From TrEMBL:
<feature type="signal peptide">
    <location>
        <begin position="1"/>
        <end position="34"/>
    </location>
</feature>
<dbReference type="GO" id="GO:0071555">
    <property type="term" value="P:cell wall organization"/>
</dbReference>
<dbReference type="GO" id="GO:0102210">
    <property type="term" value="F:rhamnogalacturonan endolyase activity"/>
</dbReference>
<dbReference type="InterPro" id="IPR011013">
    <property type="entry name" value="Gal_mutarotase_sf_dom"/>
</dbReference>
<feature type="region of interest" description="Disordered">
    <location>
        <begin position="469"/>
        <end position="490"/>
    </location>
</feature>
<dbReference type="InterPro" id="IPR008979">
    <property type="entry name" value="Galactose-bd-like_sf"/>
</dbReference>
<feature type="domain" description="Rhamnogalacturonase B N-terminal">
    <location>
        <begin position="36"/>
        <end position="283"/>
    </location>
</feature>
<feature type="domain" description="Rhamnogalacturonan lyase">
    <location>
        <begin position="290"/>
        <end position="362"/>
    </location>
</feature>
<comment type="similarity">
    <text>Belongs to the polysaccharide lyase 4 family.</text>
</comment>
<dbReference type="InterPro" id="IPR029413">
    <property type="entry name" value="RG-lyase_II"/>
</dbReference>
<dbReference type="GO" id="GO:0005576">
    <property type="term" value="C:extracellular region"/>
</dbReference>
<dbReference type="InterPro" id="IPR016590">
    <property type="entry name" value="Rhamnogalacturonase_B"/>
</dbReference>
<keyword id="KW-0456">Lyase</keyword>
<dbReference type="Pfam" id="PF14686">
    <property type="entry name" value="fn3_3"/>
</dbReference>
<protein>
    <recommendedName>
        <fullName>rhamnogalacturonan endolyase</fullName>
        <ecNumber>4.2.2.23</ecNumber>
    </recommendedName>
</protein>
<dbReference type="InterPro" id="IPR014718">
    <property type="entry name" value="GH-type_carb-bd"/>
</dbReference>
<dbReference type="InterPro" id="IPR013784">
    <property type="entry name" value="Carb-bd-like_fold"/>
</dbReference>
Length: 542
């Protein structure tokens, strides 16, 4: 049998590098180690957490190739490892003990991937120092887990076992439902942990500090994907999946894999306060080098959350104000930030703010009220299609799903239900959307129509006609993400407000009709046709 060397009696804060090459018999798995420590067996660096978890890192490329929890192997049976991006190919791997913490680092080019074990915890904490974007064009960690042991996902369906109907990543299931890894996603601000589970076991991804990620608090990305042999558990730090921001370089994390008996992670597992400067993570900034922002916000509609976002080219942060409008954002890197107040997901105020290390900056924001008196309104301006037809299904299903049936709609103000108005309008699927309303003779005058659109595809923008005798102008092409979004389960892009002034001559006493069409130079292509997502629509008297 192969021999192992463990290092357990190490003075605190004195790093020790382990470099003992040992032989591993071909085809023999590494047995669990008895104590907290590190060892090497052939091409594997073995880490014993001192709890019920032992994992192995391939010393040639930095992949995790074994995760044994309670003596059960959770790594997939396929040949791929668990790794950053699609793997580093080759890497320089080092392992050290610093007090009660083990740090394994894998360096390839300017990227360093860290695996961190805390004595007595069933967890693999991680951090990724990525000064530049990898050639693959995204930054993610994927844990490849045995689907037989861990068949269930928190956000389902996430299976790719079915008939591919779009891009080899959206699938039709036998019962007519649709499935995709994209439908496992949740907004970053809501996604502290996500995981997969089985009988008596669960593995969770702790997303941790998202300051170096991109897209803001409402951005969401793949969490899990179920294949025939593997359940993939993801932590996405950057992708172009309906992305609205550029890549942020630097140290991403701390994030991690948390192993449990099927229950939720413990408070100890969620606590990463032990990670400090003594661990030697490149790009690490301690709490003493950070600042905070606090203050008061107002003007957000009752019942809508007031979300505060900070962003610059290096970092992003967010917080939700309490019921009194007070907020605090802590752990902020020093610098100048653009600060935004959101009414749920709709930006309603902005300002700049400067943050200094060791200090709290104070800032107030008041939602900007658009001019005019609302004559009628469909939906609530909040940056989402909430309440509209199929808005509840679209985050977790393709629009072609058997549970959805799209057609052109006529909505009558004052009598139609909100859920009868479409969440999405495609030019080649369900255009036009008609809005019928009445005006008494003394209210025939000029009005402004506002259409709030959080996401569009194919350069789509709304163009209106009124009573079949007046056509509004064609708006300029919007600035929106270039990749698929609606069919991938997101309605989040760049909030865009379209305003059209309707002259009194276009209106009449009694019945009136507004038709919303889609302007675009792109061709129709099913559910990839030019399309807009509706947030809300207002007719306003100025």
């Amino acid at each position: 049998m192969p021999c192992f060397r463990t290092l357990t009696r190490v003075p605190r804060n004195r790093p020790h590098t382990f470099a003992c090459a040992l032989l591993l018999y071909a085809g023999v798995s590494a047995p669990a180690l008895a104590d907290f420590g590190i060892s090497r067996s052939g091409d594997r660096v073995i880490v014993d957490s001192g709890a019920e978890l032992v994992f192995a890192v391939d010393a040639r490329n930095g992949d995790i190739v074994s995760m044994r929890y309670r003596d059960n192997e959770l790594q997939t049976t396929e040949s791929k490892g668990s790794h950053i991006a699609s793997g580093l190919g080759s890497a320089s791997v080092d392992a050290r003990i610093v007090g009660g913490t083990i740090v394994v680092s894998a360096k390839a080019g300017d990227l360093v991937q860290y695996y961190i074990a805390r004595k007595g915890r069933n967890a693999i904490y991680m951090a990724t120092d990525a000064p530049s974007l990898m050639p693959v064009g995204e930054l993610r960690f994927v844990a490849r887990l045995n689907v037989s042991t861990l068949p269930n996902a928190q956000q389902e369906p996430d299976s790719n076992v079915g008939k591919a109907i779009e891009g080899n990543d959206v699938f039709l299931l036998p019962d007519g439902r649709t499935s995709s890894k994209f439908y496992s996603a949740r907004r970053m601000m809501d996604d502290q942990v996500h995981g997969v589970s089985g009988s008596g076991v669960a593995v969770f991804m702790l997303t941790g500090n998202r300051e170096r990620s991109a897209g803001g608090p409402f951005f969401k990305d793949i969490a899990t994907q179920k294949t025939s042999v593997t359940h993939e558990l993801y932590h996405y730090m950057y992708s172009d999946h309906t992305q609205t921001e550029a890549f942020r370089g630097g140290l991403h994390g701390v994030y991690g894999l948390l192993f449990t008996d099927g229950s939720s992670p413990s408070s100890a597992q969620l606590d990463t306060a032990f990670v400090d400067a003594t661990l030697g993570l490149s790009g690490y900034l301690p709490a003493s080098g950070r600042g905070a922002v606090s203050g008061h916000v107002g003007g957000v509609l009752p019942g809508q959350p007031a979300v505060i976002g900070l962003r610059n080219a290096q970092a992003q942060y967010w917080a939700t104000a309490d019921g009194s409008g007070d907020y605090q954002v802590t752990g902020v890197r020093p610098g100048s930030y653009r600060m935004t107040l959101y009414q749920n997901e709709l930006d309603v105020a902005q300002r700049n703010i400067e943050v200094s290390a060791g200090a709290t900056a104070h800032a107030a924001l008041q939602a900007v009220v658009l001019p005019g008196t609302v004559k009628w309104q469909i939906g609530i301006p909040d940056g989402t299609p909430a309440g509209f037809r199929y808005a509840d299904l679209l985050p977790r299903a393709h629009p072609s799903d058997a549970r959805m049936h799209w057609s052109a709609v006529t909505y009558t103000v004052g009598s139609s239900s909100l859920s009868s108005f479409p969440a999405v309008q495609w030019r080649g699927i369900n255009t036009p959307s008609r809005i019928d309303f009445t005006l008494p003779a003394n209210e025939v005058r000029g009005y402004r129509l506002r259409i709030f659109v959080p996401l569009a595809q194919g350069s789509a923008r709304p163009q209106i006609s009124v009573n079949a005798r007046w056509n509004g102008p064609v708006p300029a092409a919007p600035t929106q993400p270039k990749t698929r979004g609606i069919t991938r389960g997101t309605a989040r892009g760049n909030n865009t407000l379209y305003e059209v002034d309707i002259p009194a001559s276009a209106l009449q006493a009694g019945n009136n009709r507004i038709e919303i069409g889609i302007a675009s130079g792109s061709p129709d292509n099913g559910y990839l046709s030019p399309a807009i997502v509706f947030d809300s629509i207002q007719l306003v008297a100025l």
